[in-house]
Specification:
Elements: E1 4-22, E2 25-39, E3 44-48, H1 61-77, H2 85-95, H3 100-118, H4 122-125, E4 134-135, E5 137-140, H5 145-158, E6 162-166, H6 172-186, E7 191-195, H7 202-212, E8 219-221, H8 229-238, E9 243-245, H9 252-260, E10 266-270, H10 271-274, H11 277-289, E11 294-297, H12 303-315, E12 324-325, H13 328-333, E13 353-355, E14 358-360, H14 373-378, E15 387-390
Parallel strand pairs: 5-6, 6-7, 7-8, 8-9, 9-10, 10-11, 11-12
Antiparallel strand pairs: 1-2, 1-15, 2-3, 4-14, 13-14
Helix pairs in contact: 1-2, 1-3, 2-3, 5-6
Bound molecules: magnesium ion (MG).
Residues 195, 197, 221-222, 246, 268 line the site of magnesium ion (MG).
């Protein structure tokens, strides 16, 4: 048996080539936490939390580092066999309320470690491969209608299957004009969605959605605040465009309420929101039982952050039926294919391959990722400290 003897966290800041704009938010750099879990036999598993934000997850670099170093490592991880992931996840849920991004970061590093101990890629631990590569959509930062439409055209030419718009660049009318301009550019057959990230009121959502219903959007993601399940159900009954839940759909009890109240036509999953790979598989099973389609994403994150998602999205049969916009590394590096990313500029030395709108998980044990140790040092977040906890 292996035994966990050391847990290390590193605060890392990765600048974005191009800012990502959302309501009240302009992201220029990704503050994330890289986690290393080391065993007594010298084996190491690692993970990256990806973007942290007060409004999406309510977790920050410091809170993730503190939760892992002060609670999860000393009370759960140290001395434990890292292969007992289900047991560790259950204990994390018992001893730590919420904090799913911190829990997911731990769950990811354990899967990497277990894959390395058993000599298999993580997708083999998750049921094996159902498809070779996950088809991706392109996320369009909010902007002037013509600019957003031009970017959608470039993404379509590369091979992306879905175009997801973000709101909040200018006025409400700008958002409405953007939807129509992008639809005109990508054509009626393209899969087109918009994500309001919970920033509309019921009244505003009704006003806007009625004006964009004619653009034939395939779905609207999280029009209302995460807590307003009743409002989502009312809205869904009042408009034509399907309504999907992202921020509302975190824990399984959230999914149950959404299902019971018929508050969404489908769901959106990110592993950091669901709390890791173990909890995400339960989440996907619940969605499947309810017949709710699932779209899959990742945080804006490095090649390491994206890897757990890259492995699960090719392994989980329900996840592979929906579309995907797990393109965090491409958003960081401002490109639509991984071949254009300069060597050594990411937390991962070998970013999973993105090509022609498809993403392939890395082969090799665990996530198949090599950590860029030099990058962790050169991009350490200013004025913030990592922690090390050991037996
Ligand atoms: Mg969303």
């Amino acid at each position: 048996m292996s035994k966990i003897v050391k847990v290390e966290t590193f605060p890392v800041s990765t600048p974005l080539k191009k800012p990502v704009i959302m309501p009240n938010t302009r992201i220029t750099s990704i503050d994330s936490v890289v986690l290393k879990i080391t065993c007594d036999d010298g084996s190491v598993g690692f993970s990256d939390s990806g973007d942290t934000s007060s409004w999406y997850r309510g977790e920050l670099q410091e809170s993730i580092i503190a939760m892992i170093s002060n609670v999860i490592a000393p009370r759960i991880l140290l001395g434990e066999d890292p292969r007992n992931i289900e047991k560790i996840v259950a204990k994390m849920d018992l001893l730590v309320r919420d904090n799913n991004q911190a829990k997911a970061t731990v769950d990811f590093a354990l899967h990497d470690l277990k894959g390395k101990l058993l000599g298999v890629p993580v997708y083999e631990l998750l049921g094996g491969r159902t498809i070779e590569a996950a088809r991706q959509g392109w996320v369009l930062s909010a902007g002037k209608p013509d600019d957003v439409a031009a970017e959608a055209k470039r993404a379509k030419d590369v091979g992306f299957a879905l175009f997801k718009m973000k709101i909040g660049y200018g006025t409400i009318q700008d958002d409405i004009d953007m939807v129509h301009a992008v639809r005109e550019t990508v054509g009626l057959d393209a899969y087109l969605t918009i994500d309001a990230n919970g920033f509309w009121s019921y009244e505003k959502a009704l006003h806007i959605i009625r004006k964009i219903d004619s653009a034939g959007l395939d779905l609207i993601e999280q029009p209302l605040a995460h807590w307003d399940i009743e409002g989502m159900a009312r809205l869904r009954a009042a408009v034509k465009t399907p309504i999907y839940a992202d921020e509302s759909a975190q824990e399984l009890y959230n999914l149950k309420e959404i299902i019971d109240r018929r508050a969404a036509d489908g769901l959106f999953i990110k592993l950091q929101k669901a709390g890791g790979l173990v909890k995400a598989q339960r989440w996907l099973t619940m969605a499947r039982l309810a017949g709710l389609p699932v779209h899959c994403g990742c945080m804006i994150g490095s090649g390491l952050e994206h890897s757990p998602a890259a492995h699960l999205w090719v392994a989980n049969e329900w996840a592979t039926q929906g579309l995907n916009e797990s393109i965090g590394p491409l958003m960081i590096h401002g490109t639509m294919e991984s071949k254009n990313i300069a060597a050594g500029t990411d937390i991962a030395l070998n970013i999973p391959k993105f090509e022609g709108g498809l993403c392939y998980p890395n082969e090799g044990p665990g996530f198949g990722i090599e950590l860029n140790e030099a990058f962790l040092l050169s991009h350490k977040t200013a004025d913030r400290q990592g922690r090390q906890v050991s037996l």
